[in-house]
Design brief:
Elements: E1 6-9, H1 13-24, E2 29-32, H2 36-50, E3 54-56, H3 60-65, E4 72-75, H4 81-91, E5 99-102, H5 108-116, E6 137-140, H6 141-147
Parallel strand pairs: 1-2, 1-4, 2-3, 4-5, 5-6
Organism: Musa troglodytarum (fe'i banana)
GO molecular function: NADP binding; phosphogluconate dehydrogenase (decarboxylating) activity
Protein name: 6-phosphogluconate dehydrogenase NADP-binding domain-containing protein
Length: about 150
């Protein structure tokens, strides 16, 4: 399998449908979820319905490494502890200029905490869209709308 251009973490109903929609537009996508049954179900469903290029990964390291650099991972995970755990798990395998786009319903306080946490780096080394500098780019859905 060639590296995909984007990854999706969070395979509830919205995540499964977004993965299929992205693949349907011609972009192979890597998929990951904390619940392993969803990891198997999503690519199977995509293959049966339209033979779409959705690839599931049980291991977070394999998931992250399956994505072309700089990596972009869309995260559709429940706010609070699940989002925190997912960011911590995935960021352990991500590198400078990789980006997590938090598309979930995250609370502003948590977004600010994520931004201030370990995602900052030396200000002279920006590669994240916008004016903020992070070692790992973290964008909330609100920031993505502002960029677009």
């Amino acid at each position: 399998m060639a590296p995909t251009r984007i990854g999706l973490a969070g395979l509830a109903v919205m995540g499964q449908n977004l993965a299929s929609s992205i693949a349907e537009k011609g972009f192979p996508i890597s998929a990951y979820n904390r619940t392993t049954s969803k990891i198997d179900e999503t690519p199977e469903r995509a293959k049966l319905e339209r033979n779409l290029p959705v690839y599931g990964f049980h291991d977070p390291a394999s998931f992250v490494n399956s994505i072309q650099k700089p990596r972009v991972i869309m995260m559709l995970v429940k706010a609070g502890s699940p989002a925190d755990q997912t960011i911590a798990t995935l960021s352990a395998y991500m590198e400078k200029c990789d980006c997590i786009i938090d598309g979930g319903s995250e609370w502003n306080e948590n977004i600010e905490r994520h931004e201030k946490a370990r995602y900052r780096r030396h200000p002279s080394q920006s590669c994240c869209p916008g004016s903020r500098q992070w070692p790992l780019c973290y964008l909330s859905a609100k920031e993505v709308q502002a960029i677009l």
